[in-house]
Amino acid sequence: MILVIGSVVVQEGRVAEALGLNQLHVARSRAEPGCIAHAVYRDPEDSNRLVFVEQ
Predict the structure, then answer these.
(1) Tens of pLDDT, residues 15-41
(2) What secondary structure does DSSP assign to 1-55, as a single string?
(3) Geometric angle at alpha carbon 48, from 29 and 13, rounded to 5°
(4) pLDDT at residue 16, as a whole number
(5) Would you list the domain boundaries of the chain?
(6) Which of 36, 32, 28 is CA-nearest to residue 54?
(7) Alpha-carbon separation of residue 28 from 1, 12, 17, 21, 48 (angstroms)
(8) What is the per-residue pLDDT for 1?
């Protein structure tokens, strides 16, 4: 199994916009052959950091 983990820090006040865009990215990724799971999470210690996990 391969796990790809990444993160991005979003500009203050633009997290909702970034989450919306990333949901589109996650949906496209889930449709790719071989993708078992893909999700985006908000870091509980830094609300401007989004963490991506793909399996």
Answers:
(1) 999 999 988 888 999 999 999 999 999
(2) ---EEEEEEPPTT-HHHHHHHHHHHHHHHHTSTT---EEEEE-SS-TTEEEEEE-
(3) 105
(4) 93
(5) 4-54
(6) 36
(7) 20, 26, 17, 11, 23
(8) 87
- Give the residue from 41, 38, 42 showing the smallest Cα distance to 54: 38
- Residue 4's identity, in one-letter code, is V
Tokens of 54: 């793909």
State the pTM of this model. Answer: 0.82
Residues in the chain: 55
Q: Give the amino acid at 27.
A: A
Closest C-alpha among 53, 54, 39, 46 to residue 15: 46
